[in-house]
Prior knowledge:
Blueprint: H1 2-28, H2 35-60, H3 62-67, H4 69-91, H5 96-103, H6 106-118, H7 124-141, H8 156-174, H9 184-209, H10 217-245, H11 247-252, H12 256-269, H13 275-291
Helix pairs in contact: 1-10, 1-12, 2-4, 2-9, 2-10, 4-8, 4-9, 5-8, 6-8, 7-13
Amino acid sequence: MKSPRIAAFALLAAANLLWAGNWVTGRALRDAFDPITLTFWRWTVAALALAPFALPEVRAKWQIIRRSSPILLLLALAGAVAFQALVYLGLRTTTTINAVLLNSSGPLFILLCSWILERETATARQLAGMLISGFGILVIVLRGELGKLLELELHSGDVWILLAMPVWGLYSVLLKRVPREIGGLALLFVIAASGVAMLLPWFLFQTIQAPPRWPSGAEVAGVLYIGLAASVAAFALWNRAVAAVGANSAGFTMHLLPAFGTLLAMIFLGEAFHAYHAAGVVTILAGVALATSQRTRRPSG
């Protein structure tokens, strides 16, 4: 049936919209919080928000969660700790153009992780869609002037963001190994709480070394956004959709993030809308539609 599949891709689109806001917010907060501190508060807010709703299920499914602790801890390390910290670290020093270009490599790493871990291959349709949407991203970030590609400079933050991409690929592929008995809220709470526990020693060490200043109201609002919208809501949407359509198909929707980021910049930063914006967004959407219109072949058994 197509309707559940369409619903799953709507969830993926919503997740990418919320994550686009996270990239904007993370860049805005780069001088207020170091990457470890921002990641720690992000998941602390998420865990506290999830606790009242998730703890009853965690208690009921505790034996399953305990038996699944190796995969759950690996998901927390990859998705909650390593990926987020690397992104925030990269956003401190790289440019928006470079960051968006590197983020668009995410589907490639999901495909690679799927092949290594699951022996799952991509279809020709998916590869073609990825190339089309990647070209749409170039149209936007280069403002319709492909000659600007030669002017790109490598920044230290680029390395950190590039390292984050295979980590996200690993997280997305490993999601399918979580027992179905563990519900979405319980899974996200365990990942968030485990991430906080892993980050706590680093956070305390940095706090002792350099006591933080009291954040402003706007900075607190930014942390609440990434903790509630970009963590709880977006990860819940992503996890549920990946379970329905698979990591490979879901990964292609990551090319929606630059398109959403452009729209958010126009709305919140007052940037003008140009013809290259329209051309880029249409191209991205066409590529995503092509890549996700056919299920990825899965190995039998």
